[in-house]
């Protein structure tokens, strides 16, 4: 996904004189050829993430379309105030593209983890959030985001599905009778493995904001399991509001709001969080069983 992002952003710099890229050292080497070709529109501010967002806001005010890039905890958590003030408050947009996701860089420790990034954008409102599940989804999402002036966040991950599904909105993968399971971005293949033999509907989205409420309701289930690769419960209010006129049950699965104080691999963290196939199967099976309730997560 990261290489596809670099390639697509470089092509946009070549093709669209309105496009600019703002970095804070991360991926600086990958964008070096683009910086040589477009020194006025590839800006590397060094290890100054807050400044990176300030520069992006200034570029947007001049009519450029800035693409801002770093690890999620640096571009979102660390620079949240600048996102709020230099973009939202100024009434301008940018395309923020992160790597690292919730725990892709778990070997670097807690400083490189950002499970709460999407929840932070919910406090601002008005942001489109894309969580691609495959590299083939990155190019179309970034190209579309660069073509307008609204605020967009694209969350890249090293975890990925076997097949790309570039269409945004709710996509039905398979039908069942017991409940609807909605997998966000790179969680799809793990959810598929967890659901083997379960009589449930499976849907996929790479765009949790704005959430496809119409698509969710079209699934036709009042029992819903939401599996997101970031903080558990991030989209629970949106889903509950979408079903507010119906008696419904919701199980929200994701990264728990707890600091594990561990390193380990991304696979270790998925297992510790119950987000591997075995953990998801246990949670989903208990929820859809007759008389079942939420086994873990937020319901």
From TrEMBL:
<dbReference type="GO" id="GO:0000287">
    <property type="term" value="F:magnesium ion binding"/>
</dbReference>
<feature type="domain" description="Transketolase-like pyrimidine-binding">
    <location>
        <begin position="1"/>
        <end position="163"/>
    </location>
</feature>
<protein>
    <submittedName>
        <fullName>Transketolase</fullName>
    </submittedName>
</protein>
<dbReference type="InterPro" id="IPR029061">
    <property type="entry name" value="THDP-binding"/>
</dbReference>
<dbReference type="InterPro" id="IPR051157">
    <property type="entry name" value="PDH/Transketolase"/>
</dbReference>
<dbReference type="Pfam" id="PF02779">
    <property type="entry name" value="Transket_pyr"/>
</dbReference>
<dbReference type="InterPro" id="IPR009014">
    <property type="entry name" value="Transketo_C/PFOR_II"/>
</dbReference>
<dbReference type="InterPro" id="IPR005475">
    <property type="entry name" value="Transketolase-like_Pyr-bd"/>
</dbReference>
């Amino acid at each position: 996904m990261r290489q596809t992002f670099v390639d697509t952003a470089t092509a946009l710099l070549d093709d669209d004189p309105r496009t600019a890229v703002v970095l804070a050292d991360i991926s600086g080497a990958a964008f070096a050829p683009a910086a040589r070709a477009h020194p006025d529109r590839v800006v590397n501010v060094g290890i100054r993430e807050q400044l990176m967002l300030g520069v992006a806001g200034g570029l947007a005010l001049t009519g450029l379309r800035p693409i801002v890039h770093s690890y999620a905890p640096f571009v979102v958590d660390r620079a949240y105030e600048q996102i709020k003030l230099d973009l939202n408050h100024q009434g301008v947009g940018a395309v923020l593209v992160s790597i690292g996701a919730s725990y892709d860089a778990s070997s670097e420790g807690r400083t490189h983890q950002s499970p709460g990034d999407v929840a932070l954008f919910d406090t601002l409102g008005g942001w489109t959030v894309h969580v691609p599940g495959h590299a083939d989804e990155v190019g179309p999402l970034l190209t579309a985001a660069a073509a307008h002036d609204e605020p967009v966040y694209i969350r890249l991950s090293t975890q990925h599905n076997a097949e790309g599904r570039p269409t945004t909105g709710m996509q039905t993968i398979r039908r069942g009778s017991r409940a609807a399971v909605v997998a966000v971005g790179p969680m799809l293949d793990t959810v598929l493995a967890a659901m083997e033999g379960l009589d449930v509907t499976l849907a996929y989205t790479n765009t949790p904001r704005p959430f496809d409420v119409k698509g969710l309701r079209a699934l036709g289930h009042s029992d819903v399991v939401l599996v997101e690769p970031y903080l558990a419960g991030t989209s629970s209010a949106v889903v509950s509001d979408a079903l507010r006129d119906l008696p419904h049950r919701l199980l929200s699965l994701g990264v728990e709001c707890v600091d594990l104080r561990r390193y380990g691999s991304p696979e270790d963290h998925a297992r510790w969080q119950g987000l591997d196939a075995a953990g998801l199967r246990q949670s989903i099976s208990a929820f859809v069983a007759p008389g079942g309730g939420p086994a873990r997560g937020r319901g």
